[in-house]
Amino acid sequence: MTLTDIIIQRIKDEGPISFRDFMEMALYYPELGYYSSSDDKIGKTGDFYTSSSLTPVFGAMIAKQLEEMWQILGKQQFTIVEYGAGTGLLCQDILQYLKQKEELYDQVSYVIIEKSLAMRKKQKMQLPGKVRWYDSIEDVGPINGCVLSNELLDNFSVHQVVMEDELMEVFVDYKNDFVEVLRPAEMELTNYLAELEVSLPKGFRTEINLEAKKWLRQIAGALQSGYILTIDYGYTSTELYRTSRSCGTILCYRDHQINDDPYHEIGKQDITSHVNFSALCHWGEKNGLTCSGLTNQAQFLLALGYRDYVLSTAEPGKNMLQVAKKVALLNHTLLVDMGNKFKVLIQEKGISNQKESQLQGLSNAISIK
User: Fold this and answer.
1) What is the dotted CATH code of the domain comprising 18-158+207-241+257-362?
2) Residue ranges per domain, the chain?
3) Tens digit of each residue's pLDDT (9 = 90 or more) over 144-165
4) Residue 295: helix, strand or coil by DSSP?
């Protein structure tokens, strides 16, 4: 029985399901969901690239920022918690850089929280014994350090809503094909927009990520002192709710091609939505987190010395023209293409001296409104 058949049967048994439940099944249904299967997802043989799949320099720059965080926290025991570690490349590159910092490396413990059992299996095959895996951040215990995620929140299952005479939620029905129907939105969804002071014009369609609220609440409860470093594509509220995005931001990825039809090749393609960074700051503050700052990936990497590091790691003896071409391609991808698309948000908790805790990666922060 295919995943499509399973979803159709559920609709026949229960009636229309919310888009959020459809997305959850499409991505995470045991063994058949996109992230639950063992197929390659990331890299040349997968459906998309991540920054860490392109070069170890990305992980090195993240590690450099983690090193500064460790210094601000007093050079004590430092726990790195990575959510959704994919193939484990980012973890591998971070630890490879930190090995050069003996005092820090000795005090680092690295934790991965991975929802996908298939991904977890791949990670365990290549990552060192220093890494531990947990199902939930509550199982880790009080954390002093940094909670890290790279392209995680865009895969949280989201509710879709459309503003008509009142706010309506998108449900998925099946009548010889998948069709969408609208039902009045629950209070939690209308309250979400009201609390962010967002007023949608009639006909405007968008996503609401309630899972991100729960995620931040859990992290805030476990984080004793330290940071949350979130890298993903998305916008602030000012950008997200512009008229040009009135059809929503759902995008699907398959074989490095992009489409906007989530009802196609169910379980075989990734489904994503853009992150609202203003909302993350808002819900974070409600749970005791302070927003350290927001910047884009290009400015984050450049502030941490990306250009010099790339040149310093060029292989000696290589043809300089080939090296220059490789560096130019990498710069265009990480700094221009993905660099402008991706944002870096850092939130903090329990940092005693705010003036001395300005992070290097946030040297060129942008407005969060």
Assistant:
1) 3.40.50.12710
2) 18-158+207-241+257-362
3) 999 999 999 999 999 999 999 9
4) strand
